Amino acid sequence: MNKFILFVAAMLLTFSTFAQKNNERKISVNGTAEIEVTPDEFYFTISLKEYMKGKTKVEITQLEKELIQAVTNAGIPKENLNVQDLAGMSYTRRKKDAAELFTTKDFRLKLTQPNKLIAILDAMDNDGIVAARLAQYTSSKMKEYRKKVRIMAFEAANEKAVYLAEVAKQQLGEVLEIDETKSDQFPGLYSQVNTNDFMVSKYNAIEQASFTTIKVQATIQAIFAIK
């Protein structure tokens, strides 16, 4: 009999706790934040192509050596320059001549100071440069910026919950849940879209870098108890 009474009491206690949880008063709010930051890492694509200088063909190896030397002279580590693509194109100077292959080579150059691109390209043979463009960009402090914007989003949610509770003449309690519902999906590098890559000059590339910014966003959903 005593065991039965204890069992019923336990069931009633469980039901009471369940009912309290279901009837728990709470408020759910969203907070959104956005910051705009200036990138400090820029990735440029430099395209070189073999060409005829009189009757002499300027080889891609010579153009590549010039680029490497120009990068070194500008104080840029060699590791910041990498081959991105290699292609060949047949070209006939005169109808009776056999087709000749001209190689095009794309390089990826990482710079923290975009203006150095001008000095690098000015030190080279311009006839061998097909294009120079800003391809991608990022910030070395993206992790810090993402943390900052999440904190700002939560603070916005908290502020909203406080004044809504005050309007309802209620007192805000502890945080029950925090969920990041939306944030920018940072791909590591942001891409710069050009409508006509091979018409972009070195000065256009610098101008693109100068006006480029990154928007870092976050939305936090927070659920607070109402006392």
UniProtKB/TrEMBL annotation:
Natural source organism: Chitinophaga jiangningensis
Pfam (any one): SIMPL
Key word Protease present: no
Entry keyword set: Signal
Protein name from the UniProt record: SIMPL domain-containing protein
BP term (GO), one: DNA damage response
Residues passing through the membrane, by range: none
Domain of life: Bacteria
Signal peptide: 1-21
InterPro entries: 26kDa_periplasmic_antigen, SIMPL/DUF541
